[in-house]
Write a structure and sequence with these properties.
By secondary structure, this protein is α+β, with helices and mostly antiparallel strands. The chain is built from 18 helices and eleven strands. The strands form three sheets. Strands 3, 4, 5, 6, 7, 8 and 9 form a seven-stranded mixed beta sheet that branches. Strand 1 and strand 2 form a beta hairpin. The protein is globular, with a radius of gyration of 24 Å.
Length: 580
């Protein structure tokens, strides 16, 4: 029987990363739950076995329920009945299967009914479900919103809401409005305190809300009268059981049809504040968005995996001129490039997830006891790394997702343009990944400060030190020489990045920096992905050796192209360009 986890060997490879021992130790707090809960692991080996078994369940449900239902869900889609969302019929089958399997509240502590799984495992589950149906993944994965409530809500709120999510209730984050898309400082949905009922009331409209008729909402609203910027915004919890919110309409979207994207009307909706007033945008949305961006990176990788599988299967089956088209170099080049991007992007995704795991686990420990100086230092280190890697993982993988889905259709030729083939759905679903939860352009903005302040260069130096250690431990002399040649090529990319950053800094012109930002971002990402892919190949050449060759050639060409562009840009050239 098919299984979307065990059939993709790269997933198990990333689950078995050396950092997982530290992650499990922190997440399980030295396995303190052992004996308290039947399913709590006793030690590291038991924890890894538990993680493996959960992903096998996800893989089974995806391969045998979610993926087979995807075309029906895409065709039917959700609709509105009396101000409420009605999912496609088979979406309810998917939800029933995931709920009965206990795949909710995956990262939440066991004391609330959760599975207490690391972010790495939850990220893998997101990837697997996305490969089956990216629209359903949006509905199921928004359980992750509960992380923000767990981090910033009161204990009373945790006990009230987290068990409900762990039992299968759905969530949404209600941020954007008709006049406030990426510019969330412009949010104007009004929150006013009702003295007589001792609660907050929400009034206004939200737009483009994914899974907008969910059971529990986190709502960004303006609590401070007379303000118009981010300092007047707070975060609120709205429970659908309280009433006061109707679905005005569901957007008619290009893709991800299984996920209802709603316009909501709030009319004196009863709500409670989450955390402190005025920190809604400054602190809580940033937490929500970082989690969501990692989720979209996983979704992007899942769609890429599906595109690769579809392209490969079609190319092996389709015959032209007396042979399978996979034997034509032009076709094989596209398939090899899809796989190389997939392997490199996946390495970036799981490296980011591991960083998130370590700092979040230490943050959680800090709620119950004081951290040691070493632990505080470790938490700050991995939080910086997570903050730096999130825009790379989201931006690069969403762009790769779009390109791979495009190439998948091209490999199918005219058939790929027909509705009967899965690749057209993948292409439609992929398009949103580089737009929602922060466009690629916003990911560049988020990464730029880490480019100019040397954070990424420090990361590259640290990864180079790790590469030196790993490569020098290789016993096969010929193989060691081959890997060392790749290390030298990485150093050349690093020098190109240093030169580009220095050149742009010398311009002392913000417009030039912003205009070159995308190029600097991609040079940085290509360099780091080459390092990560080489580390993976040293560990398992059988899985990644072919992708290493293809991706390095691709990355070097892109770095050279971007470097030439950057060095040709200055204020005068920019002014001339803008006038043309």
């Amino acid at each position: 029987m098919a299984n979307s986890y065990t059939d993709v060997r790269e997933l198990k490879f990333h689950l078995d990363h050396p950092l997982m021992r530290r992650i499990a130790e922190l997440k399980e707090q030295n396995y303190a739950d052992a004996g308290k809960y039947d399913y709590a692991p006793l030690d590291f080996e038991d924890a890894m076995d538990s993680y493996d078994k959960v992903l096998e369940i996800v893989g089974d449900i995806n391969a045998n329920i979610i993926a087979p239902n995807a075309e029906s869900v895409d065709a039917e889609g959700p609709h509105v009945e009396n101000g409420r969302v009605r999912y496609a019929d088979r979406t309810y089958e998917n939800l029933d299967a995931t709920t009965k399997a206990g795949l909710n509240g995956m990262t939440m502590p066991r004391r609330y009914g959760g599975l207490s799984l690391p972010v790495v495992v939850y990220t893998a589950a997101n990837e697997i479900v996305s490969a089956g149906d990216a629209g359903f993944e949006n509905v199921w994965s928004l359980q992750d919103c509960i992380e923000t409530l767990y981090c910033f809500g009161t204990e009373e709120q945790r006990q009230k809401y987290i068990p409900r999510v762990c039992a299968g209730e759905t969530m949404s984050m209600d941020l954007t409005e008709p006049d406030a898309g990426s510019d969330l400082q412009s949010v104007m949905l009004r929150a006013s305190f009702d003295e007589s009922e001792n609660c907050w009331r929400l009034n206004g409209v939200k737009r483009f809300i994914t899974n907008g008729d969910s059971d529990i909402h986190l709502v960004l609203a303006r609590s401070e009268e007379g303000t118009r910027d981010g300092r007047g915004l707070s975060m609120f919890i709205y429970d659908k059981k309280s009433g006061g919110v109707d679905v005005r309409r569901i957007e008619n979207k290009l893709g991800i049809h299984g996920s209802p994207t709603c316009e909501l009307t709030f009319r004196n909706a009863k709500a409670e504040i989450c955390g402190d007033r005025k920190l809604g945008l400054i602190r809580y949305v940033m937490s929500l968005m970082n989690g969501a961006r990692l989720g979209i990176a996983a979704q992007s990788v899942g769609i890429q995996q599906a595109a690769y599988e579809e392209a490969l299967a079609y190319a092996r089956d389709r015959r032209q001129y007396g042979r399978e088209i996979i034997n034509f170099p032009a076709v094989y080049d596209m398939i090899a490039t899809i796989k190389a991007r997939l392997d490199a992007g996946r390495s970036l995704l799981y490296q980011c997830a591991r960083y998130v795991d370590i700092y979040k686990a230490l943050e959680d420990i800090q709620r119950s006891r004081q951290l040691s100086p070493e632990e505080r230092s470790e938490m700050k280190k991995y939080q910086r790394l997570a903050d730096a890697f999130t825009p790379l993982a989201k931006g690069m993988n969403s762009e790769y997702c779009n390109q791979s889905a495009y190439d998948c259709i091209q490999i199918h030729g005219g058939s790929g343009y027909m509705q009967e083939y899965k690749c057209q759905r993948l292409y439609r679903d992929a398009r949103i990944t580089s737009i929602y939860e922060g466009t690629t352009q916003l990911q560049v903005v988020a990464a730029l400060r880490y480019i100019t302040n040397g954070t990424y260069l420090n990361v590259i130096n640290d990864l180079n030190a790790e590469l030196d250690e790993r490569v020098n431990a290789v016993e096969d002399g010929g193989k060691k020489s081959e890997f060392l040649a790749y290390v030298e090529r990485i150093n050349e990319m690093k020098v190109a990045l240093e030169d580009c950053v220095e050149f742009v800094k010398l311009q002392d012109n913000q417009d030039v920096l912003d205009f070159c930002g995308r190029k600097l971002y991609e040079i940085t990402a290509y360099t780091i992905m080459c390092q990560l892919l080489l580390l993976d190949t040293v560990r398992c050449e059988e899985l990644f050796g072919a992708s290493l060759v293809v991706f390095f050639n691709h990355a070097e060409a892109e770095v050279a192209r971007h470097s030439k562009y950057v060095h040709g840009m200055n204020a005068d050239v920019l002014a001339s360009y803008m006038r043309s």
